[in-house]
Design a protein that fits this description.
By secondary structure, this protein is an alpha/beta fold. It contains 13 helices and twelve strands. It has a seven-stranded parallel β-sheet with strand order 8-7-6-9-10-11-12, with helices on both faces. It has a five-stranded parallel β-sheet with strand order 2-1-3-4-5. It is globular. The structure holds 1,4-dihydronicotinamide adenine dinucleotide (NAI). 1,4-dihydronicotinamide adenine dinucleotide binds next to α4 and α6.
Amino acid sequence: MKVAIFATKGYDRKSFEESNVAFGHDLTFFEPKLTPNTAPLAAGFEAVCVFVNDRVNRDTIMKLAAGGTKIIATRSAGYNQIDLESAEEMGLAVVRVPAYSPNAVSEFTVGLILTLGRQIHRAYNRVRDNNFELDGLQGIELHKKTIGVFGTGRIGVSVLRNLSGFGARLLAYDIYRNPEAEALATYIDDPVEMARQCDIITLHLPLTPNTHHIINEDTIKHLKDGVFIVNTSRGALLDTLAVIEGLKSGKIGYLAIDVYEIEGDLFFQDLSNEIVTDDVFARLLTFPNVLVTGHQAFLTQQALQNIAETTLDNLKQFEETGQCDNAVLLDQIRG
Ligand code: NAI
């Protein structure tokens, strides 16, 4: 199959080229993101492969359809960047990689909690400057804390598994109960009540209209003073302006995020010689109790290999049968 791979980085090219030896697709790598402006590059390609910050909106999909594209393969678990209604209307299939490595994101999540909770990132910088002063580096222990995992799908349950050795009290919230999570944590059916009890909240929900700004001005009022919030899912689960107010008032004691609401123009590129004009993001970086990473929780060797193999297999299945086990189907999402 002729595949146009957008938003390609060196590590994508390497993993796709290595995995493609077993599949034999005709791959073309493009560095720009897929947007309405770059969509014409895909003319003549049956398949496009996209990533989380590509703009796969109605305009882009119309241009893809006009150029003969039949399938959009996102090399991610989340698919909130794709206008599924427009894709269905214009006859384009959408496929994804549902579980390339839940452990990659889960281990990174625990890493963020430990790093920020114990100030390891600040200690690293101090020691490199021969500053061995400990003042300001006092941390928190997870032992006996109450940690709430919102979303107990593949990643959330892996987070519960990985956190289960710390002697913390683990709570869980989801619209469905996961038997493995039930064995590790206590489910609380009311999200506000669960949030009210937590010292640490970690979000593992997909971004949907129901979860958009799930942490907002109103919910923040119900949280414990000094609560620790972790988001490695999608930026818009948090109302960033409300979170900044929470940080300023001290209501939020720690914030660790790998994703940001308007990350599309920032992440996955070197802006070290540029002026960043996003004042909200710049404000976040000023807090000593905020740790931001640039959407790297997925980035492990195993995950990259799984992403490439599953994406190429998705395309093979579609080429051979017109269907795919990993199709994103609107009927299923609507329930
Ligand atoms: P999953 O689909 O296995 O689990 C999501 C869980 O959320 C499900 O159990 C579902 O029932 C629950 N859920 C959905 N809507 C809900 C609602 N309104 N209220 C309560 N629960 C709800 O997804 P998985 O693999 O665990 O991934 C979670 C998210 O992590 C992805 O959607 C993606 O946004 C993010 N992610 C981030 C990565 C990164 O590099 N930072 C990498 C991979 C995924």
